[in-house]
Specification:
Blueprint lengths: L3 E6 L2 E9 L5 E3 L4 H5 L19 E4 L4 E4 L2 E2 H7 L2 H10 L5 H13 L5 H8 L7 H15 L7 H26 L13 H10 L10 H14 L6 H11 L4 H12 L7 H15 L3 H9 L20 H16 L5 H14 L2 H5 L6 H12 L6 H21 L35
Antiparallel strand pairs: 1-2, 2-3, 4-5, 5-6
Helix pairs in contact: 2-9, 3-9, 3-18, 4-7, 6-7, 6-11, 7-8, 7-18, 9-14, 9-18, 10-11, 10-18, 11-18, 12-15, 12-17, 13-15, 14-17
The structure holds carboxymethyl coenzyme *A (CMC).
Length: about 425
Amino acid sequence: MEEFAKLIIDGQEFILPVIEGSEGERAIDIRNLRPQTGYITFDPGYGNTGACRSAITYMDGEKGILRYRGVPIEQLAKSSTFVETAFLLITGKLPTRDELTRTSVYLNDFSTLHENMKAFYQNYPSKAHPMGILSAMVNAMRSFYPELLDIEEEMNKTYLRIISKIRTMAAMAHKISIGQRVIYPRPDLCYCANFLNMMFDSVVVPYRLDDELVRALNVFWILHADHEQNCSTTAVRVVGSGKVNIYSTISAGISALWGPLHGGANQAVIQMLERIERDGLSVETCIARAKDPKDDFRLMGFGHRVYKTYDPRATIMKEMCDIVLKKVKQKDPLLDIAQKLEEAALNDSYFKEKNLYPNVDFYSGIVLRAMGIPTNMFTVMFAIGRLPGWIAQWKEDVSDPEMKICRPRQVYTGNRLKEYIPIDQRKADDPFC
Ligand code: CMC
């Protein structure tokens, strides 16, 4: 039976259609609200707003469920590879062996950078954040590799070109920032192994690839590959809705991800843990500060707009900490601090009442540190992982006949009509002048 919502304004009834998703999520369709009633809705941060229909990722924040194209994240993390998961997200299906091989061949073919692009790196200040460099470089790709929007095969190559080159760009940014010679991608290595090799191989100390670390990187990127309508994905959809090219759209996603409330949280968590260790802060002090509304200190890596229980990605990431630390034969003191903080927060009434649990970023920095990834590259690692999701969401958006240019409304709270006052008639005691 078709469902409707009834809205009563000043005694007048308006009927609004209800739409339902494949997992039962229901939405009141307000597309005709303003033409019918003159009213708009008010939802800062869009917490109650469904901005699109999407068949890519399903999340249930109450139950801690995350699925890509219907497949549970736990199964993908256990058995898939990052490249296969990227294929699943972008095309909507699991690849055949032939399709996967073809994808890998393209990823190899596209892995080097145009020689002229390398010149950009040399002119960045040595302390430039790699996220800023990455966002600029991806935007610059448009000039070097214009995409052919109307030819599907060419667009498929464009997706793989970005996925392949972003990894080379990221590793190159790292090598240049530490003053080492750039290591080129190797055609005999898979996606993740190639990245680790480009990051850590050097003429002085050759890098020895380890299957378990390569697997860990696959899992790390699978966990980040999509997360439905989060801040950066929304940026991608909003920017893309103006029909700008895909490179600029992805570049906008990278910029949005950089923020510490979003992807930048993985760097912020490690910096927080390091500060706690360095200053000898107690867990109790940190919890008290995080709860104090007058203090802007937050427990980074805790809380989520959608998850009101343990983030399923954090569960897997926590297990990975042990695997990776064991592999590299290290003991990370920050892991002890993180575990103590988690235990204290999960038993604290403030965190319980507000449903604040560890999110993916709480333990991811410890995994990355153990792999040897420098802290300022953490959010870049998130960006590489999120790329298939951004591409899938952009692709879905531009091919959806329901989608329009994103253009929200506002509730204006500024001045009513004011007369312009010529400069020599303005009075010092007039607050408007
Ligand atoms: N530490 C202390 N208090 C918190 C925290 C935290 N990490 N997160 C939320 N709260 C409190 C917040 O102060 C607010 O309290 P009150 O109701 O008294 O005003 C309440 O919980 C609700 O928080 P909110 O900021 O209104 O919730 P939100 O949905 O707008 O924000 C969030 C979600 C992720 C931005 C927020 O939880 C946060 O800032 N967490 C820390 C940063 C972080 O870890 N970000 C990574 C998110 S997961 C990776 C990704 O996909 O982006």
